[in-house]
């Protein structure tokens, strides 16, 4: 309550304190400031509110008694003998009806419980009364008046601390409900499912699986054939049978939409193959001699294709077998890149019937783009043991 008391006294010093009406307005502003401070602090207990109002009323009555004692000697007529100083009236919790009209509000008769801590005042602007305009010229300022004004400024600076808003109590963190957690998980799984569907529909999964299968086939082929397999240093051994060397364009027969063009590279000759259609009219057949097919009968063998993309873009192409009476092999999908590389195809023919006609190794380069082109350098076969 010391903050409100200081604010009331500062307001009285800056106003015409001899006017009962001005003093009543200041007291009423103090009551409003108290109610505002209690509401801002969230104090709703009626006993605490009543106690704070009772304390304020007692302080207002005390200040009003002092103001009346200060005004009475000034307004009393001069007498030859100095009147003894009026004793300070005792503060009583009760007030008369006349005092209530001067204090600017009705009396409070509520019970006086245990005192609660005084609330902070949000602003002192409501306690500042306007000084009435003087009707005559201002009197010269005396030293005592200057001291009073200086003391009032110091009190005003000290009371500025009351302008700070009260700290809000930290609200407990609300726990997330079961429904919100369930919705978050459902959204997460939905996004994961959409990402998986997009990867599968765009061919990214198939391409990754194909590359992994190619790497596995190369590793298994290298382990099974030992030194007979191809390597970047040693190349192909003598056990590999070369059925196409890249120079014989007549060894490749294309369908109605296929195009075969001989090209020359810095290393070896090659054929530029363009299917133009993913169907049978775009297949490109590479002739496999009869004597080579007879070596494949009843064995597991390896076919190596040395290829590269004709452009800077990788080319998806398929390879399948049509070896006549010896049988066929499932279609395999490969990727040819800009660098020249050897792709291995593992085939197994259980039948022991010796073929009597040449077979064909069928390629198609129009899986993703009908105009995709492939450079074929050579085709080799490693018969099984």
Automatic annotation (TrEMBL):
Residues 1-20, 68-97, 128-169 are annotated as: Disordered. The chain crosses the membrane at residues 178-200. The keyword Thylakoid does not apply. Residues 11-20, 155-169 have a biased composition (Basic and acidic residues). It comes from the Bacteria. Keywords: Membrane, Transmembrane, Transmembrane helix. This is Regulator. It comes from Pseudorhizobium endolithicum.
């Amino acid at each position: 309550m010391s903050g409100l008391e200081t604010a009331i006294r500062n307001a009285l010093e800056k106003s015409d304190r001899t006017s009962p009406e001005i003093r009543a307005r200041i007291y009423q502003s103090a009551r409003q400031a108290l109610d505002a401070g209690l509401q801002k602090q969230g104090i709703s207990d009626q006993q605490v509110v009543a106690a704070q109002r009772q304390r304020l009323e007692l302080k207002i009555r005390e200040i009003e008694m002092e103001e009346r004692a200060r005004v009475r000697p000034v307004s009393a007529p001069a007498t030859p003998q100095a009147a003894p100083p009026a004793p300070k009236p005792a503060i009583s919790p009760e007030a008369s009806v006349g005092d209530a009209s001067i204090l600017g509000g009705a009396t409070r008769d509520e019970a006086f419980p245990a005192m609660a801590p005084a609330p902070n005042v949000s602003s002192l602007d409501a306690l500042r009364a306007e000084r009435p305009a003087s009707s005559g010229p201002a009197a010269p300022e005396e030293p005592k008046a200057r001291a009073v004004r200086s003391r009032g400024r110091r009190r005003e600076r000290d009371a500025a601390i009351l302008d700070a808003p009260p700290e809000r109590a930290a609200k407990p963190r609300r726990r997330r409900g079961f429904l919100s957690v369930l919705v978050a998980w459902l959204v997460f799984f939905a996004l994961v499912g959409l990402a998986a569907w997009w990867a599968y529909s765009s061919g990214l999964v198939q391409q990754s699986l194909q590359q992994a299968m190619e790497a596995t086939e190369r590793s298994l082929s290298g382990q099974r054939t030992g030194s007979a397999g191809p390597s970047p240093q040693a190349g192909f051994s003598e056990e590999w049978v070369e059925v196409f060397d890249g120079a014989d364009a007549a060894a490749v027969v294309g369908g109605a939409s296929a195009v075969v063009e001989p090209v020359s590279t810095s290393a070896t000759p090659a054929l530029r193959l363009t299917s133009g259609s993913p169907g049978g009219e775009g297949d490109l057949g590479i002739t496999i001699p009869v004597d080579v097919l007879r070596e494949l009968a009843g064995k597991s063998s390896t076919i190596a294709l040395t290829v590269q993309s004709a452009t800077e873009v990788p080319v998806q192409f398929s390879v399948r077998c049509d070896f006549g009476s010896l049988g066929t092999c499932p279609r395999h999908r490969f990727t040819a890149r800009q660098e020249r590389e050897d792709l291995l195809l593992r085939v197994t023919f259980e039948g022991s019937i010796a073929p009597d006609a040449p077979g064909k190794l069928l390629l198609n380069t129009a899986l993703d783009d009908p105009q995709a082109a492939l450079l074929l350098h050579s085709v080799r076969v490693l018969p099984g043991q």
